[in-house]
Specification:
Layout: E1 9-13, H1 23-36, E2 39-43, H2 52-62, E3 68-72, H3 83-92, E4 96-97, E5 103-105, E6 108-113, H4 131-152, E7 159-163, H5 189-194, E8 199-202, E9 211-213, E10 219-222, H6 225-231, E11 238-241
Parallel strand pairs: 1-2, 2-3, 3-4, 6-7, 7-8, 8-10
Antiparallel strand pairs: 1-11, 5-6, 9-10
The structure holds fe (ii) ion (FE2) (2 copies).
Length: 242
């Protein structure tokens, strides 16, 4: 009889916005996650203002984590202009920070980028007009290309896309419609569909919707802490078995 493949237990959450006043919440979450998960995915906004002092708090907590940790940065991690230092502290704490290179952990492939804004579907901002608009759209395109490049290198059966910004409109619904274009970009969904990703995870839209799917049916989950806490305060993170 063929041996049953054991499933990998994955916990995912984003937008912990850790600082002095919220680090205790993060500590409690980690204590709970470690009992149930083999891998923890952090979907950006690890810190509140991107300060190295805040990142040091995150790193200190994660350095005791017994499960593998995979992450991407969020826009808040860039706020103080020290994102490289935030990332360095995470890497030193043993976190697999996704960037141009994907990671394979326990047989699951992970590719991720922060992503960027730009809007969704037919309302995507186009590369037209002033240089500043073109630069803005260029950033959105570049992030999608980096995700595509990382996904193209994965050879695992299960592939997880990890983002901060949303790749679809559906999971930002609940936020004011006026800010939808600043919450994500459909350009991030194209590589997710092209490479047949198993599941895509993101944060950033704290008042968005938990679950949606891309045009080809790839499940997308918004795992912002605020949303996960509203759904289930006893388990404020997503659990997946892959
Ligand atoms: Fe956030
Ligand atoms: Fe954010």
């Amino acid at each position: 009889m063929p041996k049953q493949k054991s499933r990998v237990r994955i916990a995912a959450v984003g937008d912990m916005h850790v600082n002095e006043s919220s680090v205790a919440t993060f500590r409690l979450l980690l204590a709970q996650v470690q009992q149930h998960a083999d891998i923890l995915i952090l979907c950006g906004d690890l810190t509140n203002r991107g300060l190295p002092s805040e990142a040091a708090l995150v790193a200190e907590e994660l350095s005791h984590c017994t499960c593998a940790v995979i992450g991407v940065l969020g826009n808040h991690d860039f706020e103080s202009g020290q994102a490289h230092e935030v990332e360095r502290l995470m890497c030193n704490a043993g976190v697999h920070m996704l960037d141009d290179e994907p990671r394979e952990v326990l047989g699951i492939g992970f590719a991720g980028v922060k992503g960027f804004c730009g809007g969704f579907d037919t309302h995507e901002l186009a590369r037209f007009g002033e240089d500043m608009i073109k630069k803005f759209v260029h950033e959105s395109v570049e992030e999608a290309l980096r995700l595509e490049s990382a996904l193209s290198k994965l050879r695992t059966e299960s592939r997880v896309a990890v983002l901060h910004y949303a790749p679809i409109r559906q999971t930002v619904e609940g936020e004011p419609p006026e800010i939808f274009p600043f919450l994500g970009s459909s350009r991030l969904a194209y590589p997710i569909d092209r490479y047949g990703v198993t599941v895509a995870l993101h944060g950033h839209a704290h008042r968005g919707t938990h679950a949606g799917s891309t045009a080809t049916g790839v499940p997308v989950y918004n795992v912002s802490y605020a949303i996960m806490h509203n759904l289930n305060a006893e388990q404020p993170y997503l659990m997946l078995n892959l």
